Amino acid sequence: MEIAIIGLGKMGGNMARRLLRSGHRVIGYNRSPEATRALAAEARLEPAFSLEEAIEKLSPPRAVWVMVPAGDPTEQTVEDLAAFLSPGDIIVDGGNSNYKDTMRRAARVTAQGLHFVDVGTSGGVWGLAEGYSMMVGGEEEAVEQLRPVLETLAPAPDQGWGHVGPSGAGHFVKMVHNGIEYGLMQAYAEGFEIMRAKGDLNLDLHQVAEIWRFGSVVRSWLLDLTADALADDPELSDIKGWVADSGEGRWTVFEAVDLDVPAPVITLALQARFVSRQEESYAAKLLAAMRNQFGGHAVKRES
Predict the structure, then answer these.
(1) 181 noted as active-site residue
(2) Distance between CA atoms of 276 and 260, rounded to whole angstroms?
(3) Which position among 10, 42, 181, 285 bears the catalytic label?
(4) Is 198 one of the catalytic residues?
(5) Minimal CA–CA distance to 88: which of 57, 56, 66, 110?
(6) Which of 100, 140, 141, 174 is an active site residue?
């Protein structure tokens, strides 16, 4: 199958590489011409230096896979593509868009006779070798047309991907996936910190991670990655304890509130990321001041 990939960053570039290795024809466009040229030199990627050129190199019905940041970049790219494409062509959003934006874009695009498919994509930097987990939303007809690409990008043709529902469903499921990821990561982080704090036992945390990786009910790929990180630097001395959030954890919490679904673990995991970004907590200072006021408890003063 032939497809154009718009956005050749880490994930978009690796998806192009995986498709090229399996014999698909891939046209690539990136806002930075250097990235396009570099991938064209490395692999059999056919470079394009504008959206219009990328589309012109495809035979109808055309499929264009967008891998650009969520929000305005995706909005503008979809709008620009829709102006160049013809009825029956497919736009795929493989980024981390909010599912509500996806539903709105799908309605606008399908009104023009185009197909819109949302693919919530997980796999990160390991996707090139291991394959990607893909949660697909959109019309059955369009998803079936994309099947050869989806089967190639997945860990196996019949594993790791599926058509989960109508437009927006793919990004909705990926949003919840990332919310669950927040909770799992936070649980591992807290557990290892408890073990590290028990200094009198002198636990080797890398050893513990390796033990848990096999046979344990808490074994997972996240634990495998934790073991790798601890093997390299058990004290994590080169890493600052500052944790970003991509937005999907927030959206999951907002959705839980809207649906009246209790989600305390995911919510607290998100809040823990906010705490990690504070150089100094005003709330903690105020707590100390209150304890001092009502009970005379000692406070630590700034030196």
Answers:
(1) yes
(2) 27
(3) 181
(4) no
(5) 110
(6) 174
The predicted-structure confidence for 195-204, as pLDDT tens digits, reads as follows: 999 999 999 9
Tokens 């868009």 correspond to 97
pTM of the full structure = 0.93
pLDDT digits (tens, 9 = 90+) for 29-50: 999 999 999 999 998 899 999 9
With tokens 């650009």, the residue in question is: 68
In total, the chain counts a number of residues equal to 303
Peptide bond into 61 cis (omega under 30): yes
What secondary structure does DSSP assign to the chain, as a single string? Answer: -EEEEE--SHHHHHHHHHHHHTT-EEEEE-SSHHHHHHHHHHSS-EE-SSHHHHHHTSPSSPEEEE-S-TTHHHHHHHHHHHHH--TT-EEEE-S---HHHHHHHHHHHHTTT-EEEEEEEE-GGGHHHH--EEEEES-HHHHHHHHHHHHHHSSBTTBSEEEEESTTHHHHHHHHHHHHHHHHHHHHHHHHHHHHH-GGG---HHHHHHHHTTT-TT--HHHHHHHHHHHH-TT-TT--S-----SHHHHHHHHHHHTT---HHHHHHHHHHHHHT-SS-HHHHHHHHHHHHHH----PPP-
